[in-house]
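Model it.
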Amino acid sequence: MIFFHALSFSSKTNHVIRFVLVGVLNTTFSYLIYAALLFFGLGYQLANLFTLVVGILFSFKTQGHLVFNNSDNRLLGRFIVSWVLIYCCVIIFIGRIIGLGFDAYAAGALALPFSMTLSYLAQKYFVFRQINRNKSEADHV
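Modeled.
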């Protein structure tokens, strides 16, 4: 609980640091869900699908609230669209790395920084973007 409190109320904490920490939290949560579903007998295909859906929803809430201070549920569509586009870009990137002679394991690992960067940029500038109004516009509201 202290982790959430420190992340959500520390306005001086860098967005990138919060993004990485919350990403670790999201990944851990998703893997625990996946492992639990496997433990209870669900096949890996359904366990992965369920984990993907729950993980996207969990990530949307945690990234929105803890990283970008935005809990607007209306942005879920943008979040999903951004992840579809990120997925496509990462698959293309992995394919090109494999084309250079790397195996799929190495290519996936090399794609992680690319994926994280795309995710951060998409969330900051597309999903949870802050619309800045100049002072004169703010005075008229």
